[in-house]
Design brief:
It is built from 10 helices and 8 strands. With 267 residues, the chain is α+β, with helices and mostly antiparallel strands. The strands form 2 sheets. It has a 6-stranded antiparallel β-sheet, sandwiched between helices. The chain has a two-stranded antiparallel sheet with strand order 1-2.
Length: 267
């Protein structure tokens, strides 16, 4: 939902502020913020300290959080929230056979993500058994501006949506290759939109490079992105683009077609 639509909805009688705040607190926890104090949560969410405290205590009593010496962390019960999505909305399972086909042909991991605010969020993944320094799975979030799937998704926003994103973006340096200039990022996204694919080379993590292609609905609108990620020391950029990209694009098209067939039959 766009910021404008969300602001309008908040003015309606259907908006429940306490639910909004509770979800903000849950989402304050992440791989880098596994344990948080009340003050931490207040700072991250922008909520007052008393409000953050009440929400954390409520989550604790409901079994979604636990506290130890003033440090709060989420419990395994929060997985039920993600499982509710996976069990009730399994549309991305359609993509799994095509993703497995890609992994079989290339020996490299394959993922699908959608844009969620300033991040991409993984909705499907088929990985190899190689060990990576970052653990990625369904539900993982990464900054859109430093990822190949993020570039594909950002490149296909409307001009107004992209400018709003860039205006609110705080660029953080993850590696020496991370793009920290918004004009440079804008130029790259224009190329991604023209070429119909995107790629990053060690922008989010040293040694990790990836390529991505768009998944489209029946009207041609980009609804997700599919990528191939690999270790830079094992696969060159030339191999990634010349050999793997055509396979990835082919599977992106096949996934788009399969999902559109299912959607049309359901309608």
């Amino acid at each position: 939902m766009s910021t404008e639509k969300l602001d309008n909805f908040k003015e309606s009688g259907d908006y429940i502020q306490s639910l909004d705040r509770g979800l903000q607190v849950i989402q304050a926890f992440s791989q880098n913020n596994k344990t948080l104090t009340i003050s931490d949560v207040s700072k991250i969410t922008g909520l007052s300290r008393p409000t953050a405290r009440r929400i954390l205590l409520t989550l604790e009593h409901l079994g979604f959080a636990e506290a130890n010496n003033g440090l709060f962390s989420l419990t395994a019960r929060t997985l039920s929230l993600g499982y509710a999505y996976l069990s009730s909305n399994n549309k991305w399972s359609i993509a799994h056979p095509f993703m497995r086909d890609f992994v079989h042909k290339t020996g490299e991991s394959c993922s699908i993500s959608i844009l969620d605010g300033t991040d991409i969020i993984y909705v499907a993944r088929v990985s190899t058994k190689r060990i990576m320094s970052i653990n990625l799975d369904v539900g993982s979030r990464l900054p859109a501006y430093a990822t190949s799937m993020g570039h594909v998704l950002l490149a296909n926003l409307s001009k107004d949506e992209l400018e709003k994103y860039l205006n609110n973006l705080n660029l953080e340096k993850f590696t020496d290759n991370t793009i920290l200039d918004k004009d440079q990022l804008r130029t790259i996204l224009e190329d991604v939109r023209t070429n119909n694919w995107g790629g990053v080379d060690q922008q989010f993590e040293e040694g990790l490079r990836s390529i991505a292609a768009p998944i489209r609905d029946a009207n041609g609108k980009v609804i997700a992105a599919i990528n191939c990620s690999t270790h830079a020391g094992r696969i060159s950029k030339e191999v990634l683009i010349k050999e793997f990209l055509p396979i990835l694009q082919e599977n992106a098209t096949r996934i788009s077609e399969a999902m559109n067939i299912v959607n049309s039959s359901n309608n």
